[in-house]
Design a protein that fits this description.
529 residues, alpha+beta, FAD/NAD(P)-binding domain, D-Amino Acid Oxidase, Chain A, domain 2, six-stranded mixed sheet, 10 helices, globular
Amino acid sequence: LGALGGGPPGRAPEPGGTPGGTPEPGGIRAGVPCRPLRTAAPLSSDFFRELGQTLERMAQTLRDQLPASGRGERGWVPPGTHPDPRPPEEADVVVVGGGVVGWSVAYWLKVLEGRRRRHGMRVLVVERDPMYSRASTVLSAGGIRQQFSLRENIQMSRFSASFLRDINVCAVVWAGVIWAIQPHSLWSPVSSQEYLGVPNEPPINIQFQPSGYLFLASPQNAAALEATVQFQRDEGAQVTLLSPTQLKEKFPWINTEGVAVASYGLEDEGWFDPWTLLNAFRRKATSLGVQSCSGEVRAPPECPWPPGTPDLSVPSQVHMPDSLEYQPVACAIVVNAAGAWAGKLLEAEGLPRGLCRPLLPIQPRKRYVFTWHCPNGPGLSCPFLVDTSGAYFRRDGSAGNYLGGMSPPKEEEPDPSDLSVDHDYFQEQVWPRLARRVPAFESLRVRGSWAGYYDYNTFDQNGVLGPHPRLENLFSAAGFSGHGLQHAPAAGRAVAELVIKGRYETLDLQRLGWDRLVDGEPLQEHSVI
């Protein structure tokens, strides 16, 4: 990088030559007056910082793909996949789904088990898409917010924000005390909770961008937003209300027409890189002894359940990808963290029909994310804005790039069978709403797009956590309807506490269990984007 500026960073070359008076080609020497050359504008420091972050992500991805040392293999190994493609024949817990929620559950199981077991809990994570090409985690917009209407969601967001703040803490035991190690700091004793730092590994940089969510409300919804903000404050969230005048003063680029009031998060909100967090959970869990494999979990053809009575073990088969081969895995507990396909998992052939009562109402819902460039856009002051129309956008880096989208009406849900993008949806639905709210977006250039899945809970748009009412050793951790990434640290710990201790200890998430499905009483979340 120093060569780009003619010398080391922070030291500019002298006019007409290189530092120190070294002759330049053509006979020009330092100190000899000459007409200055016309050069392009210097690159900003933000460019070099983003370039360095991009190169580091590429290097980490390559390191993740290297085969295990000492095996003499040179083939490519998908990140998080053990070089041996076959899963073990036995495990204590099988986690179905290797997204961020599944890996969080596996991580917390190993953290909370402590040293009570001589050989440790055997945890297996099974992911059918090792390339994560269709995974909800890596195809999300990467946001985290405190502004929810349900107490449990606010509490999980606050827990996750605290967890991400200390993500690089790792712990060692010395003299009978657990000590925390943080980069560039002294050791300090901590509680038994560990985080995602791994000794002798590079620190984790999730590229967190602190910027509040900005919810805009129309006159019809103003009272509801004000009441929700008061509830959020009572739960400890730092949120402020802005009048249209205050909104215009803080964000001059906004058109406030049709806005009666806005809510703005003051802390613990923003966005980060989902892929980095997923790999951090995977790397830490693997270092704690969690195993993983590629495959699809299915029930065996011969169902061992006696009629009307649950078995004490959960039969499962892991089918190898692109193969007829399968491996039976005997286990005591299964955690259904299959995301958008969590509902279909319980409808598989070979499982008792009783597992479908009550129905796990989780379906894949396709959502588009579009990226665009607008040099005269909001700039660095851009929050994660959610318009009165439902359209949203946020800044994507610091070079005039943005990303956003909008959930369609129920009657216009796109076909979820593939991840193709309807580009007309942006032109006809999203762009007009964005341009009306931000006049600068009238002249933007679309850069790209992708589609991902919500694990959409059609019942009340909230996660379903805890044991199945008809099979107590089958646990669910799915149905977050678009906020699973930000709630993964809290949800993973909650499920692990149920598995190991039989109760919630950190957060009381009892209301997110199956009982509400059985009783037909939804816990409606009104702040789903």
